[in-house]
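Researcher: Here's the sequence for the chain we discussed earlier.
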Amino acid sequence: MNDICREELRKYQEKYHAEHSTGDLAPTVCALFGVPEPADNGGEALAPVLERATELFGAAARCERLLIHCPDAVGDIHYRKHPELLARVEKLAALKMLSTTIFPSVTPGCFCTIFSGASPEVHGFKKWEQKIVTVETIFDILPNAGKSVAIVAKDSSMARIFRNRKIDYYTVRSDDIARRITSRLIEEDEYDVIVSYTWQFDHFGHHNGPDSPESLEALKFCVETFEEFVAATERHWKKYNRAVIWAPDHGNHQVDEKTGSHGKDIPEDMLVNHFYRLAAGVR
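Model: Thanks. This is the structure I predict for it:
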């Protein structure tokens, strides 16, 4: 474990009284697959997730298929404001991990931390920029372990910053296309790990405010997308030990009557929920 990263991630956990960090996702995924964690990881594999995996898969078995859905900007604030919507996610993925993200709470750095476990002091994303991630990530570890990996995303930070890895990139024009392609890839079953990104809630949060009708529709889209992905994994990955994760990068906040933003060291931006669903394969 990288002590610099661990200290930086823990600082925000202590500030916001959260047991977990978004940097915990990378070591958790690696533990589920039985592969080494990224070199600069400062996160901690989530004990409740691993305990559930042992219960379902057995002590020696591993996860065989993984779908990670990344809805941009869906924070804990939205879980509390719209419980009727996010309860649908929690119903499917009951392991809820209230987590702090990193500062500045902007998309490229947040996703870098999620998939590497590294903090800004080490991975270098100290402002919004779309540079290529150079620290080791699960997109390096998993292919090196023989796993096939795909990222499906509208042209965005998520589609760009993890380039130059031995994975497949499906960069598309819209969230609707990303959703359709992800469902198709689950059905075709050619990948061990699929990461699928949803952009529109962040977009409407910036341009219309996070509580606008447009943003609420985008949040519904995120939830419906997750439900579709879970249903697809239940149909087409039934024989595999599998996991589906809801993993947003940060939250957002209202700026004025018409706009919203994120990037501040405030609870609305810094607190998110990651949800984990695990299921055992039926051979």
